[in-house]
Amino acid sequence: MKTGLQQHAALSQQLRINPRLYQAMDLLYMPLLDLQQHLKQELLGNPFLELLEAEDETEVPLAEEAKEDKKEAEKNDEPNWEEILLDDGGDQGAPPRDMSEAREYVEPVPVEAKDLTDHLREQMRLLDLTPRQQLLAEEFIGNIAEDGYLGATLEEIANGVNQVLQAHADESERDVVPQPYTLAEAEEMLRVIQKLDPPGVGARDLRECLMLQLESRSETDTLAYRLVREAFEDLKAHRWSDRCGSRRPIRTSRATRRSSRARTKISSTSA
Q: Could you give the 3-state DSSP secondary structure of residue 133?
């Protein structure tokens, strides 16, 4: 039997916890009263330690700054009543350009959850409108329901904005006679509203909503657009096989496919 010194190489894993980790774990699971007592003992035993009290953040300046920003924003959103009252409606400014130019600047995914009214107002700010047109546009947006349909007639909208205009004229110190809004101005503004996003907004009924959606997709020369425009009542009543087909010389199978597509839009339409 041989005796002597021998050397072997081997790998092994051992779990060793740092003493500081032990101390941190003890402090973490220590009750609050025991932790306070432990800190006092450490402060008494070590003169180089100093206990720093948590400073309360001064929120007063921030709150005042937020109030000033809110007041400034409200001031900017307030219509220029003097300019509106003196506007006789003769100069309507440059006609709005194609809405596709404005849509390029609309964020598709908003940072904050905004409703339809906020979404429409953001798009209106991108258009080159006079203060008189902006007031009329606000009246239209205020009468659009959450589903996107216009909840008032053009006459009611014109009368409502004329009442607001007259009320501010009565409160004004200047002796001015405001020019009332006409139905022609209301119809022109309705066409502007109906070109905003989402397609179909500002429609007065389902037929107009579908036509606006098809127009936004440049499908005015399609059979689906013709069915909605010329035979919408028959389309809703599922009479397209015997009556819609008789209006135009089209094949029955083609009318079936187009009417099915239009009915799908009807069931899923939400302006």
A: helix
